Amino acid sequence: MATAKKNDTTRVVEDAVTTAQEQILGAVEQGQTLVLEGYKTMLDAISKLDMPAVPGLGDVYKVRADMFEGMFGFGAALLENQRTFTRKVLETASKAQS
Predict the structure, then answer these.
(1) Spatial distance between the Cα atoms of 63 and 23, rounded to a whole number of angstroms
(2) 18-52 pLDDT per residue, tens
């Protein structure tokens, strides 16, 4: 009976965590959407201004875009490394409890 109660408690906690994660992700996505809409509105307003051309500006964007992709690629690799490490820790801990 203790196992059934523990499983019920675990299920309640897991449901609460899942709900919280979904709400946080939803809020983050909503915030991102609002920022992008504001950014697009600002760029639309700026594009209507009579601005002089700046030679080489496109090249600067390409360099920054490459850096951006590189940073996120590294972040993804680091996260995957941590995920693998955590799985191994949990597997080791579960074997020790057996």
Answers:
(1) 35
(2) 999 999 999 999 999 999 999 899 888 888 888 77
Distance of CA 63 to the CA centre of its chain: 23
φ, ψ (nearest 5 deg) of residue 53: -70, 140
Coil, strand, or helix at residue 48?
coil
Extended beta strands in the chain, E state: none
Tell me how far apart the alpha carbons of residues 36 and 30 are, in angstroms, rounded to a whole number. 10
Q: pLDDT (tens digit, 9 = 90+) per residue, 62-98?
A: 777 788 888 899 999 999 999 999 999 999 988 887 6
SS3 content of the chain, % helix, strand, coil (to 5): 90, 0, 10
b (16+ CB within 10 A) / e for 26-51:
eeeeeeeeeeeeeeeeeeeeeeeeee
